[in-house]
Write a structure and sequence with these properties.
- This protein is α+β, with helices and mostly antiparallel strands.
- The mean pLDDT is 92.
Length: 285
């Protein structure tokens, strides 16, 4: 079996230094659709260095591009075909606001390996701290088709009860034709998102958008719409990637307010509201 669960779980954590600066933050923000309209004061908080704040989902690319997925596939006990890999879900816990410029230590390990029968799920945990203490904890759920069935723990269900009633807010966000090409400049160079031939090998008729790009687009919509544009209010953000997005499509983002939470569902407008993000929860102050 290409995935040796015992070996992966027993492997020593990998620790390294990561750094980022305002250029990295600005590039990430552009990659998740910030800057339209370009002179809008609310958008300038994402694009202009004198007003810059950091969308918390930047944590998924800070310093190394895609630490949860790419690093997870290079851990001891994990040897899989990249064409069989999909990003199954993401959970981010923010311990304090992310600075515009930073230097921190990232510690990554495989926190869990689950047997889903026809697939395996790896949970790659990355904990990041600077000299002032913990900054964030990132869990990436890596879905590997064809690698299950060894009789291991199936793991917890990520499914939430459906939101009750009509959404409090519904917004639409257009995805640019070149959105994946722009987003990948933040460090995730998986050819699935740029190379048509590789996309065909993975079962898609053309390249798909990074799930973490949709993840960032969605968090920005929640912050801008229900959290008064205040990125520092975000405490946690979790989602399950329920379907793909193709560059050029439009996302419909539905939001339900709760006590200290926002439930979110995201779908692709042009494909009869096909689900894209499900079981999505933003925790906030």
């Amino acid at each position: 079996m290409p995935i040796d669960a015992a070996k992966a779980l027993a492997a020593e954590p990998r620790t390294g230094e990561i750094t980022w600066d305002r250029r990295d933050v600005q590039l990430y923000h552009l990659g998740v659709g910030a800057g339209a309209p370009a002179t809008d004061p609310d958008e300038l908080r994402y694009t202009l260095e004198s007003r810059l704040h950091v969308l918390p989902s930047f944590a998924t690319v800070a310093g190394s591009g895609s630490p949860g997925v790419i690093s997870g596939l290079s851990m001891p006990g994990v040897e899989v075909d990249l064409a069989r890999v999909l990003h199954g879900g993401q959970h981010l816990e923010i311990h304090r606001p992310i600075p515009v410029t930073g230097r921190a230590t990232a510690t990554g390990r495989i926190a869990a390996v689950y047997d889903k029968g026809k697939a395996a799920v790896l949970v790659m945990r990355t904990e990041v701290a600077d000299e002032d203490g913990p900054l964030w904890t990132n869990d990436a759920q890596i879905f590997v088709r064809g690698e299950g069935g060894w009789g291991g723990d199936r793991g917890p269900s990520a499914r939430l009860d459906p939101p009750v009633g009509e959404p409090d807010k519904v917004v639409e966000r257009a995805v640019r034709e070149d959105q994946a090409l722009l987003y990948r400049l933040s460090g995730d160079y998986n050819p699935l998102h740029a190379d048509p031939e590789f996309a065909k090998l993975a079962g898609f008729d053309r390249p798909i958008l990074h799930g973490l790009c949709t993840y960032g687009i969605t968090l920005k919509a929640v912050v801008d719409t229900l959290l008064d544009g205040d990125v520092s209010r975000v405490r946690g953000y979790a989602t399950r990637f329920a379907g793909v997005v193709f560059p050029g499509e439009t996302l419909r983002i539905r939001m339900w307010r709760g006590e200290g939470t926002v439930r979110v569902a995201v779908s692709a407008v042009q494909r009869d509201d096909a689900p894209v993000l499900a079981d999505t929860l933003v925790e906030h102050s």
